[in-house]
Amino acid sequence: MLSSLSRRRVVVLLILTSLLLITLDRRGSNLFIDKARQVFAVVVRPFDIAAEAVSKPIANAWYGITHYDDVRNENVALKDQLAQQKGAEIEAKTAINKVNEILKLNRLNSVRNYKYVVAQVAGDAPSNFQNTVEITVGSREGIAVGMPVTNGAGLIGKVTKVYADRSLVLLITDPQYSVQAQVSSRADADEGSSTSSSEPSNTALSGRSKDTTTSESTTTSSSTTTTIAAKNDPGSTIAPGGVPTQTSTSSTSTTLPGFEVRRETGDIDGQGADRPLKFSLIEDSAITNVKVGDTVETAGGLKSLAPQSIPIGTIIRIDQGTGSRSPIVEVAPNASLVQLNFVSVVLFVPNQAAI
Amino acid sequence: VRSLPFALFTRLIPIALVILGMQRTIFATYRPAGVAVQVVLALAAAAGAGAGSERGAFAGFALGMMYDLGVGTPLGMSALAYGLAGLTAGYVLSITPDPQWWLAAIFTAAGAAVGEMAIPLIKFLTGQEGWLTRKLFVTIPVVTIGALILSPLFVPLGRWCAGAKRRRWRVMLE
Questions:
Q1: Using a CB-CB distance cutoff of 8 angstroms, which residues of chain B are in contact with residue A123?
Q2: Pairwise CA distance, residues A206 & A210, whole Å
Q3: Which chain A residues are within 8 Å of B52, Cβ to Cβ?
Q4: Which residue has the higher pLDDT, A158 or A287?
Q5: Between A285 and A203, residue with greater pLDDT
Q6: If you write DSSP's letter for every residue of B56-110 in order, what string do you get?
Q7: Which of A234, A312, B53, B148 gives a 20 to 30 Å CA spacing to A296?
């Protein structure tokens, strides 16, 4: 009966049915569609495993034969890189511990306060119009829709679909992805306003988009009194990330040049797999406060998809914009999204409105 | 000639599960020029080239639905695109009832190109921007060539899955 329909009717029927389904699916969580996907995932799983079991040994053997020299050279290069990184790692760990202590003292949240689940990337998106990867953990491990996913280098995306033993992760480069972010930039010494070490100052906190903090490195000679500024103390100095800083009242013998840290907030949006991320500042005028090379990290907050301070990337291009054209800031992601292997899902459940 | 619903349930769905398994593993991993060859789309177009526009459209729709369910794309999007692929490829039977293998291959490739192009267009129309990029100039040719190469195998398979038989000219004997 179906094949006896005229060609025109077939086209109309197909288009209408598809549009109906797309509309139902795009409206959000639909019990019937979600259930159908879950059942289908169970049905198709054995076929996936069989296809992988057949193809993987052959593909690996072929790769080993054809790329033997490359693999050896890469191994040597990676060993060298690892040796260099060991030194930097110790230094970084010390700094992280210090930051965590400050955050703990001030009862502030950091990404390290959240538990995470390590997962392996099972495969890339089969479609050419989807920036997703499949990971090997699901609802059984406590994964939920919206959770941020990171690897060693930084943020890679968010969980969009969860099945019992696997999940789909939408990568940060997807045009549908958007997250609140902040850029912390350190101005040069001559640009920064100089302040006396005995007078803690709170320099202009102009709304959400700009926090300016002036800090000063000092070496003390004898009697040093260190106080931790209270969270809501109007006189306290707020560091990037909203962390009140230590204010030292001391008799100074040597003063190192002061520096100014500016924080600008905005939204990071994906622009497609081969393109950098777009950083839209809340205030266009704030463009003068960021520069190429500044690092961008998640901003956190109630409506954010991720907790604060997950590294996202580095600013690689700033177009100031002319006339009515808005300024453009482009960010290269820290994490290489091409060949992901192990990732961590941060067990941070974002606000439903953010998802 | 089998009825279409019978063929869909007994032939197309089991074959599609195997092809979808391959799409989600082998063809998602090994990407020539960074593009995933679309075997399910190639089968949808081949079903059209082998069984005609109407059967091809329904077979493509069913394959697209399975793709959407398995891959996590919005339900109905690939179904529409793959249905159009089957419909387009099926026009070959309007030219000749028994096309040569190379003619069927050309129409299969054309159907696959239409199907692959339809996806970013549908995304754009449903408010998902950012996919109509220059990368399409690489994606579409790779998918088209993939379908062209697979067509000698997929056209007979697609015809069988859609429950049709190859039409042959017979000489009337007195």
A1: 24-25, 28-29
A2: 6
A3: 3
A4: A158
A5: A285
A6: HHHHHHHHHHHHHHHH-PPTTHHHHHHHHHHHHHTTHHHH-SS--HHHHHHHHHH
A7: A234
